[in-house]
Structures are given as structure tokens and as C-alpha cells.
């Protein structure tokens, strides 16, 4: 930061004359911008310098006895110093939660210190824009007055040109005001932004070093109050923690096994659903088949009655009636039977119809033989 400050001063010294001319174009706004810039630079230097006592206290704590050191009552390490052991080499059990809480507190304090610097950077840009708009307003007003004051009725062109030249001096001064304020505002924000960046790097290095140092006092098995007691975790507490870890492990395995069983059950339910859907379709087909058989039986009944009437006087009358009754009974059983026995009933019906056909054919042959005799 000091090297960069020297570079900025050297550049300002080399450009002293044009910078002074630009500053005098609008001394009010430019003075405010320069003042805010100097305040921001001082704040950044103060933030970096404020880390030196903290670093010195840590180094003295590492080397000597803590009783000879006055712990900081305020500052970044106030809460850390109250929790550290009296002897630098005594390793108290700092829990991970306690360590993270301490580091978060230090980080919040560092960020709060940089908020003002970031606000000043935005303020520099705002002042530069404000001066720019102020100069533009003056320029526009002056141009309007010059145009309104021109006297074009005279005969002398040189006089008109001199009048225009004298009138444009004030608008050009307004332009100088606008551009000078913008120049100082943007340049100041750039310089202050670099100082803030360097201060942030210094704070990050301090934070990282503090984290590494406190990590040496951390004990993984220590509870939240283990640091104050200065003793490791009791054996029974450690045993309870191990038992709890084993129970959690078993619970995790049981949950994984239950999840596998649930997936298998879902798969089986899906298969059962598919089978029930197939059974439903088969039942609908069976019902349609039974309806068709009933319709065919109704159509076959008149034919059988006519056939029985024609064959009533033949020698095979009793046998034909018996076959017809069997066919009728088979059809009735087919309509009343369950879908599981449909194949057996259909086979019986086919056999009866086949036997009936042979009987009818035989009877027809017997009745035709006497007619063919001479």
C-alpha cells in the first residue's frame, strides 16, 4: 500500500500543472472529491495498521507466558483470548463448533471495517457524476443566453464574431467543470478501490494465519464446553458416542434393506396388476364365447326338434332321443359351468354332436333303403 501511495504521489507531481488547472475549474466539487479520497486512504491504512497489535499479541503468546501478557479487551482477538489456555503449550480441546464460531466472529469484524471504505468508493463516483451534471447544466444555460444575445442586425461580421466568442467563454467553462469533476471522481474511486483491495488481502492473510494457529488447539472429540474445562472428553461420553454411531450405522443399513424390499414389493405389485389385467381380458373373452355358444344353442334347438320329429318313427328313435337329450344337457352345463371347465364341456359337446351326426346318417340310410327296393 505504501508503494502504491508513493506511485500515486509521483504521478500527481508529474501532472501537477494540468491537475491544478482542472481542479480550479470547479474547486467546490473537486475539493470534496479529494477530501473523500484522502479520508478513504486513511481508513484503509488504519485497517491494516490495526492488525499489527493483534499479530504482535499472537507472536508474544506463542513465545512467552500468557500471564505476562495483557489479553486484548477489545478488538478482533478479544473473544479468542478469553478462551485460550493460560499456557501457550497447553492444548485444550477446542471443539469444531467453537472454532467455527470464533472465526466467524473475526470475519464479521473484518468485513464491518471494510464497509465504510466501499461506501466511500461509491461516494467518489457519485460526486464525479454530480459535478458532471452540474457543469452540463451551466453549459446549456450559457449556450442559450449566448444564442439569445446575438445581434444579427449589425453590418459588421467581425463584431458579431467577437460577440459570439465572448459569449462562449462561459459555456466552455461549464464544460471544464463537468469534465474535471468526472476526472477526479473516477480517478479517486480507482485509487481508493486499489487501496481497499490491498487492505482486503492483508486481512485475508491475517484470517488464514489465525485459522491455522487455532487449528492446533482443536480436538476433534472435544465438546462445546471442553475448551473451558481444559480436559479431553470423558471415556463414558466417548463410549456413548461410539455406541450412537454404531446404532446410526445399523439404522442406515436397515433403512437401505427396507428400501430394497419396498422396491421388490412394488415390482411384485406391478406384476400382479398385469396378471389381473390379463385375467380380466381372458374373462371377457370367455364371456363372449359363452354368449356365442348360447346363441348357437338357441339356433340349434329348432333344428334338433325338427330332426326328432322326423326320426320319431324309426328304429333308432330311443337312441337318437338319448343323444339329443345329451346334447341339450351338455349345452345347459356349458352355459352354467365356470370358465375353467369350458374346454372339457366343449369337447363333450363335440363328441355328442359327432355321435348324433353318425346316428342321423345311419337312420337316413335305413329309411332310404326300403324306398330303393323294387
Description:
This protein is mainly α and 374 residues long. The protein is built from twelve helices and no strands. Helix 3 (27-49) packs parallel to helix 8. It is elongated.
Work out the radius of gyration. 55 Å
Reading the helices and strands in chain order gives HHHHHHHHHHHH
Roughly what is the average pLDDT, rounded to an integer? Answer: 73
Straight-line N-to-C gap: 147 Å
How much of the sequence is in beta strands?
under 5%
Q: What is the number of beta strands? A: 0
Class by helix and strand content? mainly alpha
| Structural domain tally | 2
Helix fraction, binned, reads over 70%
Largest sheet: none
Shape category: elongated
The number of helical segments is 12
Which consecutive residue ranges, at least 5 long each, have pLDDT under 50?
222-230, 367-374
Offer a quick outline of the entry.
With 374 residues, the chain is mainly α. The protein has helices at residues 2-14, 16-25, 27-49, 51-63, 78-83, 96-149, 157-167, 169-215, 226-229, 235-310, 317-336, 342-372.
Which labels suit this protein?
0% strand, mainly alpha, disordered C terminus, 374 residues
Walk me through the topology:
Elements: H1 2-14, H2 16-25, H3 27-49, H4 51-63, H5 78-83, H6 96-149, H7 157-167, H8 169-215, H9 226-229, H10 235-310, H11 317-336, H12 342-372
Helix pairs in contact: 3-6, 3-8, 6-8, 10-11, 11-12
Amino acid at each position: 500500500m505504501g508503494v502504491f501511495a508513493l506511485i500515486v504521489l509521483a504521478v500527481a507531481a508529474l501532472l501537477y500543472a494540468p491537475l491544478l488547472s482542472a481542479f480550479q475549474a470547479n474547486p467546490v466539487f473537486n475539493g470534496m472529491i479529494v477530501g473523500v479520497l484522502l479520508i478513504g486512504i486513511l481508513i484503509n491504512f488504519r485497517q491494516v495498521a490495526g492488525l499489527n497489535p493483534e499479530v504482535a499479541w499472537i507472536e508474544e503468546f506463542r513465545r512467552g507466558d500468557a500471564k505476562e501478557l495483557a489479553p486484548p479487551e477489545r478488538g478482533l482477538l478479544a473473544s479468542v483470548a478469553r478462551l485460550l489456555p493460560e499456557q501457550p503449550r497447553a492444548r485444550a480441546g477446542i471443539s469444531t463448533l467453537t472454532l467455527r464460531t470464533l472465526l466467524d466472529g473475526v470475519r464479521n469484524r473484518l468485513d464491518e471495517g471494510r464497509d465504510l471504505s466501499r461506501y466511500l468508493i461509491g461516494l467518489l463516483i457519485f460526486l464525479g457524476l454530480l459535478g458532471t451534471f452540474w457543469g452540463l447544466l451551466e453549459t446549456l444555460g450559457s449556450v442559450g443566453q449566448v444564442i439569445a444575445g446575438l445581434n444579427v442586425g449589425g453590418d459588421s461580421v467581425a463584431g458579431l464574431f467577437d460577440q459570439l466568442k465572448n459569449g462562449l467563454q462561459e459555456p466552455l467553462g461549464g464544460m471544464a467543470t463537468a469534465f474535471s469533476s468526472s476526472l477526479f471522481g473516477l480517478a479517486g474511486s480507482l485509487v481508493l478501490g486499489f487501496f481497499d483491495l490491498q487492505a482486503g488481502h492483508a486481512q485475508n492473510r491475517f484470517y488464514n494465519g489465525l485459522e491455522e494457529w487455532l487449528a492446533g488447539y482443536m480436538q476433534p472429540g472435544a465438546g462445546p464446553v471442553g475448551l473451558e474445562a481444559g480436559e479431553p472428553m470423558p471415556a463414558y461420553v466417548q463410549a456413548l458416542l461410539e455406541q450412537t454411531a454404531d446404532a446410526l450405522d445399523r439404522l442406515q443399513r436397515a433403512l437401505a434393506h427396507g428400501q430394497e424390499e419396498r422396491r421388490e414389493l412394488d415390482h411384485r405389485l406391478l406384476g400382479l396388476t398385469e396378471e389381473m389385467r390379463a385375467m380380466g381380458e381372458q374373462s371377457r373373452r370367455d364371456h363372449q364365447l359363452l354368449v356365442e355358444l348360447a346363441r348357437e344353442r338357441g339356433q340349434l334347438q329348432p333344428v334338433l326338434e325338427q330332426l326328432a320329429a322326423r326320426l320319431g318313427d324309426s328304429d333308432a328313435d330311443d337312441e337318437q332321443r338319448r343323444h339329443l337329450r345329451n346334447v341339450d344337457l351338455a349345452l345347459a352345463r356349458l352355459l352354467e359351468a365356470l370358465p375353467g371347465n369350458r374346454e372339457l364341456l366343449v369337447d363333450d359337446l363335440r363328441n355328442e354332436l359327432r355321435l348324433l351326426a353318425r346316428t342321423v346318417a345311419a337312420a337316413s340310410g335305413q329309411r332310404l333303403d326300403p324306398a330303393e327296393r323294387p
